[in-house]
Amino acid sequence: MSHDLFEAARGAMAFAHAPYSKFPVGAAIRAEDGKVYTGANIENLSFPQGWCAEPTAISAMIMGGAKKIVEIAVIAEKLALCPPCGGCRQKISEFASKGTKIYLCDETGVKKTMTMDELLPFSFETELG
Ligand SMILES: [Zn+2]
Question: How far is the CA of 82 from the centre of ligand 1 (A)?
Fold first, then answer.
């Protein structure tokens, strides 16, 4: 991974809207078009209505016209490693391949690299996707 993806994820984290959990998270996707799309978690007073950083980044990617995640970095200010939650693993897998790299970062850089298949083995798939 080039350093720019980590920097993009860290920069995105600053945009988190996390007044309730005080748990900012940032994500950055490099898509097949070579562009980097970022996201942060966005909470809501009606708690179930909030969402994670990864879907924000996926939304940016889709609205940017890209469809394929080449690599993705995730960072949380208050965790040494912030693995995507279960729901986000499924969301990421929709736009990834089994070998897509997921970088788990802390404030200093990438601390762990995993593939999509390692992060979500035996994933839900149909012939529709
Ligand atoms: Zn999540």
Answer: 10
The CATH superfamily of 2-119 is Cytidine Deaminase, domain 2 (3.40.140.10)
User: Which residues form the catalytic set?
Assistant: 54
Cα 85 to ligand 1 centroid, rounded to whole Å:
4
Sequence-distant (6+) residues with CB within 8 A of 67 are 31, 32, 61, 95
Cα dihedral 75, 80, 85, 91 sign: positive
In this prediction the pTM is 0.94
Residue 129: pLDDT over 70: no
Q: What's 45's DSSP letter?
A: S
Give the Å distance between the CA of 55 and the centre of ligand 1.
8
Condensed to tens digits (0 to 9), the pLDDT of residues 18-72 reads 999 999 999 999 999 999 999 999 999 999 999 999 999 999 999 999 999 999 9
Residue partners of 50: CB distance under 8 A and separation at least 6: 20, 41, 42, 43, 44
